[in-house]
Every structure is written in structure tokens, then in C-alpha cells.
Design brief:
Two copies of one chain form a homodimer. With 243 residues, the first copy, chain A, is α+β, with helices and mostly antiparallel strands. In chain A, 24% of the residues lie in helices and 30% in strands. Chain A has two domains: 94 residues, Pseudouridine synthase I, catalytic domain, N-terminal subdomain (Alpha-Beta Plaits); 136 residues, 2-Layer Sandwich (Alpha-Beta Plaits), CATH 3.30.70.660.
Chain lengths: 243, 243
Amino acid sequence: MKRILLKIAYDGTNFHGWQKQEGLRSVQGEIEQAIERAFKFSCNLFASGRTDAGVHALAQMAHFDIDDAVPTNKIKLVLNRILPPDVQILSAKKVSENFHARFSAKKKTYQYLLCTGKKNVFEANRKAYTEELDLSKMQECALLLTGEHDFKAFCSSQTSAKDFVRTVYDIKLYKKSRHNIVVEVTGNGFLMNMVRILVGTMVDYSLGKLDKKRILKALESGERSCAGRTMPPQGLYLKKVFY
Amino acid sequence: MKRILLKIAYDGTNFHGWQKQEGLRSVQGEIEQAIERAFKFSCNLFASGRTDAGVHALAQMAHFDIDDAVPTNKIKLVLNRILPPDVQILSAKKVSENFHARFSAKKKTYQYLLCTGKKNVFEANRKAYTEELDLSKMQECALLLTGEHDFKAFCSSQTSAKDFVRTVYDIKLYKKSRHNIVVEVTGNGFLMNMVRILVGTMVDYSLGKLDKKRILKALESGERSCAGRTMPPQGLYLKKVFY
């Protein structure tokens, strides 16, 4: 047996998220089925983390174990022939048997796309539409959120997490074009909906719906109601996992 | 009663085409439902023509009749609030009662997107991937296909059409970027799958799979086997209807 690490891109629009669920279309389910069909080998695929329904990946990472007889350099090609148009293997490489896509991850970068322009049907599932935003105000807010904090206020109440301390190393903000803003958040780990709430907090701060005091209170008290809105999933992309 | 003409954009990926079909998601069905929900008024929507499953529209045109009491200038806004992300009303205006979205149409332009580059999951349902193409060879082929012809060889065998004579006014070809080619076909009317087969013929000609003699034979004999392949629906966009 050997361990294979896949780098995977997917358009999350038509998936009920990463995780396999009975009777629902999931990224994990599609890839596990493709592996079984291609190599007559039933496997469990372990991702760096789940992504919710509608969330995209530019480079999700996931590992599985397979018989040594399967040539590593054929895996990408063979799987891509079978997989549907909205999921694609970008690379497949052998890793050590101690490697774990989730537990070996040191940090992750997520990207969030905001659009202040007109809705376009071809991009409606790829970004979130908002009112006009002030990049320098968002930057102010980003600085408050960067660092090691208890992010309980920035987490869905449906989480099973017990420890809410995470480190956000960096929040980058830039305009891709006149109406398109990119937010890139890098951290050592993220709670459920955390990136979507961090971005929602920056948006609400920019719109004057939250002030500095309230954000500091969110970080201190852990009260969800002190942080900003949860942005919709379709603007979110898992961009990079660092090992 | 008054007649309203809608200009509509849709991403065809998740629709079983324009036409309403029992139990299947269609563009016509979504919009008729939205009209009923918004204005408590059951209507029939008549498009400039059907589009197949997976085919997109930058500007489909469709008319319906509604009570004079409904303010025309509210229709676009109200429908867009109800419609799902992949369909959008671009405009709604009052037209004369003799106007018919299909029968009043004088010509139409379709656009087809070809990509000779690497597959990208976010664009996989928006264009067709092909081998490297030669634009000047495609242009040669386009000239053979332009004009008034019997296009029986360029039509699906499932058609119910009896008359196959159509006029292709113009075929424009250009590179949008290094790996992306746009084909724009304007004609007075199109048979079932006709644009997809015209583009498939240009692609096959460029790849050396068809020669000039064979294309002239297709136009003379009406034999489907003499024309090129049927390109997939996801590269096709209804771009403009001329009245």
C-alpha cells in the first residue's frame, strides 16, 4: 500500500459540500466513486477539511491509500477522464504513510470574492453581491481581526468545536477590477463558517453597521451577535493548504 | 391586456433547456412561475426560439400578455427578486399586440466559445474544449457555409422541420485570448443543432478531418454524415435576436 495526495479543484455550486452524504452529490463521493471505477479499489478519501455546500476549491488537498501496483503517474489522467466537469484532479503524488491531509496541515488560505457591481448570471454562483464598499475601512477592520484570538463569536452555533482559539496570520484585501474585491485570509485553522463571518464583519464594518468597540467586544465576549453577518457560501474558495 | 417583451439572460447549465417540461427544471417554467407568484397571473411565455439543455443565453427574448394594471416599469425588478441566480431579466418593455417574440424575429446571432487550453472547473460548463485550431482554416470553411443554402446536412435527424433552406448572413471568428476562440453566426433562422454542427464542421475542417469537397457535398446532398460533428451545448450562447 502507498499513500497518495491529491490536489483538487471544484466548482461547489452543484455539490452538497465536500463530505459524502447518502443520496446527495458530494465532492468526496464523486472522487471515491471515480477511484473505485478506475482502479477497482474502494477507498476512504481524507480532505484537509470539509467545505460547505456551494463553497469552491482552487486547491483542496486529500489523501487515500491504494495498492502499490497502481502507477502514481497515471492517477491524475485516469481520474480526470471519469470525473464530471465540475471537479478536476490538478495533481497526484505519493506521500509518506505518516502524512495526513488534515492533521499535517500547518495553515490554509481562503479567498472570498465580493462584487459591488451588477449581477451576472454566469458569475452569480461564484461571488457575493454587496453594496458599495470602502476598502480602507475594511482594512482597518481586518487589522482588528488578525492575530491569535478566541474566535467563538465568528463561528456557527452548529459547531462541535470546544476550543475556539485560532491564529489569523494575514488578511489581504485588493481590488481585482472596478467592482470586484478579493479578501484572502490565512490562518492556522478555521472554525465552522469562520471565514464567511470574518468577511461579513469587514463588510458590516465598511457599511457602518458595526464599530470598532463592537468588534473588540465580539473578540472578548465570544458573543455571535457582536460579529458581522455570515456571507453566502458561493463567494468562498479554498485557495491553498500549507504543509 | 398588454403585451410585454422580456430580454433574458441565463446560464443553461442546470436547466433542461428553455421549454417547460413536466417535472424538469426549465427557463420557461422558472419565469412563468415567477410571473404567477409576483402578479397572481398565469401566463404563457413565448420565446424567440427554444434553446437546448446546457445552452446559455446572453439575451433571449420572450413575450407574454398581462393585465394593464401591472406597471411595466416594475416587472423587471419584481421578477429578479424572485428568480434564481442562474436566470435574470435584463429588461421588460411594452410592445404592440401584433408583436411575436418568435414570428417577428428577423435574424439571430449565436456565439460559440471554443477553448484550446487546459480545462478549468469554473469554465467547464461555459465552453467546449478542443485540440489546437487554425483560425485561417476555420475562416476558409466559414466562407463555404455562409449564404443561402439547404442546411439539411447541418441539422439533427430529430428535427420536425420540412424546409431546410436558411440564410447564414455572417460568420465572425476571433481570438478572445491565447486559448479562447469565439465564433459568431448570424442568420435568418436556425435548424435544430445547426449552429453546433456548423461550428463542428469548422473544427473538423481545421483539424483536417473534412475537406472542401466534402463540405460542398454536404450542402448539395443534405447528407448529415458529410458535415462535421455536433459540438456540445455548453459552448453555445444565444447572443441577440433582431426584430
